[in-house]
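Trans-2-enoyl-mitochondrial
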Amino acid sequence: MLREGDGGTALDLAVRCGTAEAVRQLLVLGAADVTTICGMLPPGEFMHARVLHIARGSVWSPATHHLWPPAFKAAARALLLALARDVGDAGSEGGDDGSAAGANLACLPAPLLLRVLQLAAAPMSTWVGADGEGWPATIAMSTNRAVQLHEHSIKSPSSACSIGDAPVPTPAQGEVLVRIHLRPVNPADVFSIQGVYPGFTPGGKFPCTPGLEGVCTVVSNGPGASKFAAGQRVVGAPFSTIQGGSGTWQQYMAVAEATLVAVPDAVSDDAAAQFWINPVTVYGMFEVLAVPRGEWLLQTAAGSVLGRQMVQLCRARGIKTINVVRRLELAAELKELGADEVVVNGSGERLVDRVKELTGGRGAYAAVECIGGDMFAQVASAVRASGTAIIYGAMSGLSASFSIPDPLFRDGEALRLPVEERERVCQAVLGLLADGTITPYSGQHFPLDQAAEAVKLAGAAARGGKVLLED
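Predicted structure tokens:
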């Protein structure tokens, strides 16, 4: 039981023990005079933006609360007090003791309370207007930090990225409001920023937000949506929303419930954030190619995240791989993952000759290719008669004797994932991630507001794994 005299430590105790009773008691203490809390800070500092801005670059959670400075803790508590008072004024018939206000506040969704605590690290202007109006309860989720494009840029995609605020969407019929926590910087995201990716076509509507995937938690369900509970981790494929210019490089999205999949506890955030673009693609190509056990699969860009996961899956299924890379130092890394053969492009060794030598003159059973340019012709010549080569990217250019986007987005329906197969494939891929058959290859994490720096690093040859944006 918390006592009123414990006001200075109530927040600490509540988040430390995490019990419903402790949280309820903390909220009941919302009746305390806010000036009492302000008195914990040096004179005049509570209204100073620096106090509320002090931990802007961090993400609050109960596990990290003890690391935050006393000024932040007091500011967070003051926000809770103000929110409790506002809720009481709006709908409570309780007396001055504030018990009814605390009870009402306790009924608010947990994500809203979390957002209030996060707002304690934001400038005062974020939640109090210049005219003095705007209580936290009415605007606690009105801020949606987003990476915004005001133009496309072919030559310098990083310079096109800026950070701004967008409205928090309201979930419509059959939609779910999600909070995105972690998202990768994929080559397709860079193509989106450049304005050449057919899966991101905002039609000149700026500002727009890129981002094809990420791991989220459910905030609330719209009408007719009930499959997922608030706080549940999910990943989604809301590609129609993303194509229109509202991608995952923001804090909140409203997406169709049917596009979401629950993330098992055994799958890390890093793995879940990279779920769709690489693991699902690997699994889909694997099924389409149907390479028999003991046969050879040829792949380019084998040092990429997708290439590494293809090596892991082929090894688990008894399929031999010939892996084309740009740098010799990647050979040892791929061998450790289970690669059978590694060919360094540009080393003077002809790819077709090497493949024929390894396969007894027959050629590879199948191939996956994402370089483009002249590489596709070499790959096609290295595949056996009646073999299959899949093009899934264009890392060196958008043509390979024909326009790559055309077959990928117009004539490639047979290689797209049918809706009725989505659940089966998703569960299969999540299982592979959960048991470690395929693993993420994660690199540096950047805060969302450093997206420009993240995009720069993502374009580097030796970046040390997939670059991710967190918030």
